[in-house]
Amino acid sequence: MATRTKMSQRILPPAVSFEExxxxxxxxxxxRSYLVMSNFQELLNQAxxxxxxxxxxxxxxxxxxPKMTFMEKYRTQRQQEEAKAKLVEAGYAEASxxxxxxxxxxxDRPQPYLTTPSSHMDFYNAHPGGLCVTVALNCRISExxxxxxxxxxxxxxxxxxxxxxLCIHEYPKAWLYYxxxxxxxxxxxxxxxxxxxxxxxxxxxxxLMHRNFDPFMVMAVAAAHDMGQLSAWMEGPQAVVQWTGYDxxxxxxxxxxxLADKDPRDYGLERKNGKYRLPPQxxxxxxxxxxxxxxxxTMGAAHLWTHELLREVARNAYNLTDKDLAGLPFxxxxxxxxxxxxxxxxxxxxxxxxxxxxxxLVHAVVRR
Length: 368
Description:
By secondary structure, the chain is mainly α. It has two domains: 33-225 and 253-261 and 280-293, Hypothetical protein af1432, CATH 1.10.3210; 297-368, no CATH class. Helix content is 55%, strand content 5%. The chain has 18 helices and six strands. The protein has helices at 18-22, 26-31, 34-48, 53-64, 77-89, 99-102, 130-153, 159-170, 173-176, 199-210, 215-222, 244-260, 283-291, 295-317, 322-325, 328-341, 343-353, 355-365, and strands at 16-17, 231-235, 238-242, 270-272, 275-277, 366-367. It has a two-stranded parallel sheet. The model has no long low-confidence stretch (mean pLDDT 92).
């Protein structure tokens, strides 16, 4: 009988001391990670495989030299205040939100895609290169959905749109989630109600509108977050379902059109009875939403449990104090371990083999 390889028997980069780890930059961590670099290369390979040169060039730009060109409309404080006023009037932003939170610095020179963490608020793949890890899996999921709808139903799904939109959708995080000196990063600005995870969706939609991208790609990136969101309840024996996600996508497209100074009807919305609405969408738009699903398992399982594991190991094995756990030393330690091992492999080792095996993986990348 074949012996099953244990999760803890992983090929990892050479271990470093805690002091060496503390001297590393986000780029140092990403470039020495087998996990991050393999996922980054997979994204480059997928981009190069696209025959649609417009999609390929945009995907490669996101990966190699990201920039937010729609912000050329908002160079001055006054222009940014005017943009904010539009969003506030439409109900998409709060009047109390500071301009510097709504429009972070350096839209022309954000950090590399390679070093960007994936998650707002330290939720999932929250390490240098985390965005590559998240997006490479999402793009792969989109290909599975593409084949499924082609093979099962004969739908002529555009694989290139489905792949490219998942990579492009996330790239404003390179601008928004810049690393601070204490190895934390800002959250998304609060847009579309009280959410702090939708601004990058609005900004990338505005970016593509500003570049006069085709409406299918614009709708695909806009629909990634909430297309399938629904509200359901019982009225007596009758189940009532409302597809609230449709209204959310309308908000993303409309807010983006305000920023890009475009007509949202040119990008897929309809106007009826004085309101914008979302008409029926093809499967590629649904795939964008269905494949943007790396986060629930990573956040609700891998992050939740490995974060607590790393706090315990940092305190017991590396002698971090309460002050250290609340600042730079622990921020850097967890970011480094996650970038080298991966949140999901660390979590699955913990679940399948126990705490000792998971702790040994940590020691395998940071020497005691």
